[in-house]
């Protein structure tokens, strides 16, 4: 049972990381302004803080899921050998 939960957690972590990458990329907005005779044209970049925060939260949750999955796999291997876990 621990093995299935660990696999589910690892799959969820990969999905959350993919969503974090998408959120991070969507957080960057660019606007191009045309130049005039007196002023040159330029590109303004602004960031959307809620999307950056969402990406950070998704990466954090993914890290916690990976740590928990590794712990479950370790405890499963220790339980098979019949030894006491070193945690």
Furnish the topology, listing elements before pairings:
Elements: H1 2-26, E1 28-33, E2 42-47, H2 49-81
Antiparallel strand pairs: 1-2
Helix pairs in contact: 1-2
> Which strand order do you get reading across the main beta sheet?
1-2
Please give the radius of gyration in angstroms.
22 Å
Order of helices and strands: HEEH
Overall mean confidence score, pLDDT: 90
Content of β-strand: 5-15%
Q: How does the overall form come out from the CA principal axes?
A: rod-shaped
Question: How much helicity do the residues have?
Answer: 55-70%
Structural class: alpha+beta
Distance linking N and C termini:
20 Å
How many individual domains?
Answer: 1
Low-confidence stretches: none
The counted number of beta strands is: 2
- Biggest pleated sheet: 2 strands, antiparallel
Question: In DSSP terms, counting alpha (H) and pi (I) runs of 4 or more, how many helices?
Answer: 2
Which labels suit this protein?
single chain; 87 residues; alpha+beta; two-stranded antiparallel ribbon; 2 helices; 2 strands; 67% helix
């Amino acid at each position: 049972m621990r093995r299935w939960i660990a696999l589910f957690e690892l799959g969820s972590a990969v999905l959350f990381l993919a969503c974090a990458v998408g959120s991070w990329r969507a957080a960057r907005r660019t606007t191009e302004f045309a130049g005039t005779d007196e002023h040159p044209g330029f590109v303004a970049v602004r960031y959307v803080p809620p999307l950056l925060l969402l990406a950070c939260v998704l990466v954090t949750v993914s890290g916690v899921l990976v740590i928990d999955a590794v712990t479950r796999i370790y405890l499963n291997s220790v339980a098979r050998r019949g030894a006491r876990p070193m945690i």
